[in-house]
TrEMBL record:
It comes from the Bacteria. SUPFAM superfamilies: GIY-YIG endonuclease (SSF82771). It comes from Azospirillum brasilense. CDD domains: GIY-YIG_unchar_1. The lineage of its organism: Bacteria, Pseudomonadati, Pseudomonadota, Alphaproteobacteria, Rhodospirillales. This is GIY-YIG nuclease family protein. Residues 200-288 form the GIY-YIG domain.
């Protein structure tokens, strides 16, 4: 069984279908793109709506997109089927004003290169289709070489089905808590299973401002524990902390210093927090804790 067979079975013409295997060269964007496909499909579609000059021409003549993300060497993981319903031409200099592009820029998206000869760029409108929606994050196909060619015409390439997983691989397993490092922008697009896990963890967390290295130590033991506390930072940028209000939250990096027992009292957790503040020197003027 191959991709052409699957398309034909759903009355989707392979000759009118472009297959995309997204693998951004920007590391931060490559990390979160599967999360966006799962948690922010609207933003994923914005990412997919503008392409380089050659692919733009191909998409202008196509009707469908079979969308995948890279899933290891020579593999592609299914995101969804889309019908191209039109496009809007915008001046290149207004690219970052297009809704959603500024958000993607925060994840490292570089946008059109400086040597792009176009003065205008097409933003494609897409309609998500129900075809194989139940295989989102589960269908894996083999990607024909050369791997650097990240888009193909469906009818001209053999793309065998490699596997159909039981669970979505778009939500990659969360790293061990000692290795968990998240940017402020990433807090809003965390995979569901990550949010559920963080909601179970009480502990002491650390916020570092990349602009000058100053840091803040806090504790989480309230509603939804670490996730609840970090969600508040995601929404406000400062979590109610006076010294953080004066800073750009896009420079913040979040990590966990210590997990605590779920039956530890609030008073005990606050004592642990105070000890970490002293050891790490995060009290003002050296740090960002004001108490």
């Amino acid at each position: 069984m191959n991709l052409t067979y699957l398309l034909t079975a759903e009355a989707i013409d392979p000759e009118q279908t472009i297959v995309l295997r997204h693998r951004p060269k920007e590391p931060a964007l490559a990390k979160v793109l599967p999360w966006l496909a799962e948690e922010r499909p609207d933003l994923f579609e914005v990412f997919q709506s503008a392409q380089g000059q050659q692919l733009e021409k191909a998409m202008s003549k196509a009707r469908y997109i079979a969308s995948f993300v890279a899933h290891g060497p020579g593999r592609a993981l299914f995101v969804g089927m889309y019908e191209l319903t039109g496009s809007t031409s915008i001046p290149m200099q207004t690219f970052w004003d297009w809704p959603g592009n500024a958000e993607l820029r925060a994840f490292g998206m570089q946008g059109p290169s400086e040597d792009d000869p176009r003065t205008e760029i097409l933003m494609f409108q897409q309609q998500h289709l129900d075809s194989y929606a139940h295989w989102k994050g589960k269908l894996i196909i083999d990607w024909p070489p050369p791997e650097r060619s990240w888009w193909r015409r469906a009818h001209q390439n053999e793309m065998p089905v490699h596997a159909i997983l039981e669970d979505s691989a778009l939500e990659r397993g969360m790293p061990h808590w000692t290795e968990l490092v998240l940017s402020w922008d990433e807090l809003n697009v965390l995979p569901r299973r990550w949010r559920e896990t963080l909601s179970q963890w009480r502990g002491i967390y650390f916020i570092r401002d990349r602009s000058d290295g100053k840091a803040y130590v806090g504790s989480a033991a309230g509603a939804d524990n670490l996730f609840g506390r970090w969600k508040n930072y995601a929404e406000t940028g400062h979590g109610g902390n006076k010294l953080l209000r004066k800073r750009d939250p896009q420079n913040f990096v979040f990590s966990v210093l210590q997990r605590t027992s779920p039956d530890m009292t609030i008073e005990e957790i606050v004592q642990l927090e105070a000890g970490w503040k002293v050891r790490l020197g995060t009290h003002a003027l050296d740090g960002l804790n004001d108490n």
